[in-house]
Amino acid sequence: MRFFKLSLIAAASFIAVSASAQAGDCVRVSALGDGLTHDLAVVMSTHGLANIIENKGRKGSGKIQTTCAPAAFLTECRSTQLACK
Question: 21 lies in a domain?
Answer without folding.
Answer: no
